[in-house]
Amino acid sequence: MSVVTDNITKDKQEENKETIQNVLPKIRQFVLEDRDLLEKGTKAYTSYIRAYKEHQCAFIFRFSSLDLGLLATSFSLLRLPKMPELRDKLDKINFQPAGPEIDIHAVQYKDKVREKARQKRLAAELAAGGKNAKQIKAEQRLAKKLQKEKERRQEAIVKGRNPDKKRGRQAQMFDEWDELAKEERLHKKLKQGKITKEKYRELMYGDKKGCDSDDVMTDSDVE
User: Fold this and answer.
1) Does the pLDDT of residue 217 top 60, yes or no?
2) Burial class (CB in 10 A: 0-12, 13-18, 19+), 72
3) Cβ pair 136, 216 in contact under 8 A
4) Position 189 confidence tier, pLDDT thresholds 50, 70, 90
5) How far apart are alpha carbons 206 and 201 in whole angstroms?
6) Which residues lie closer than 8 Å to 18 by C-beta, 6 or more apart?
7) Are 110 and 36 contacting, i.e. CB atoms less than 8 angstroms apart?
């Protein structure tokens, strides 16, 4: 009887695992489309952890028994927040953050009023410079580079080429010329007022919402 029960339990666990794997990417996509969801998830996560850490009934609410990685996944976090409670546990937490090709700093509010205010505040913060501003720009450059590489691979597959095959110097030059010609055409249309800045960024970088390199957001916004 126990064997049957064990098999049922294992099947149920596998079913739950598959459900999580199918649903999680969809939820994360919602988070990527609205910073409000990103912030609420992060605040809920930090509040949950601190509630355990600071609770008077520590023998019941044991912080050491929390699966911090699974908890972060359940709140659909894109990355772990910076907080003292996690400082000495980062290398032990089983959590898969969003890849470096995801520009978390580009996640915007759907509410245009809030987004405009945030951009103004962050522009002032960025203008002040500092270590945090440099880190943000480095992350954005890396995300843009990886996104372009992903698009190049997809284009190669569509054209029937092996995306992993190293192309000759001449072929690379042709690609660079095509890219420069495309940029020049779009820039000319932008100057002539035929397309908006948002459309220009969408066609150049695939960013439908549009976000200038200086329009960035810091991790403190989601902590």
Assistant:
1) no
2) buried
3) yes
4) confident
5) 7
6) none
7) yes
List the one residue out of 180, 178, 181 whose CA is nearest residue 159. Answer: 178
How many residues does this entry show for the chain? 223
- Pairwise CA distance, residues 139 & 126, whole Å: 14
The DSSP secondary-structure symbol of 220 reads G
Instruction: Please report, as a single letter, which amino acid is at residue 172.
Output: Q
Q: Could you tell me if 76 and 32 are in contact, meaning their C-beta atoms sit under 8 angstroms apart? A: no
Task: Write the pLDDT tens digit of every residue in 23-66.
Answer: 888 888 999 999 999 999 999 999 999 988 887 777 777 778 88
Q: How far, in Å, CA of 73 to CA of 21, rounded?
A: 11
Measured CA to CA in angstroms, residue 106 lies from 102, 168, 175 at distances of 9, 34, 27
| Side chain identity, residue 28 | R
Total Cβ atoms within 10 A of residue 187: 13
How far apart (Å, rounded) are the C-alpha atoms in residues 143 and 189?
Answer: 26
| pLDDT, tens digit, 9 for 90 and up, residues 101-138 | 888 888 999 999 999 998 888 788 778 877 777 787 78
pLDDT of residue 20: 64
- Show the tokens assigned to 15: 């079913």
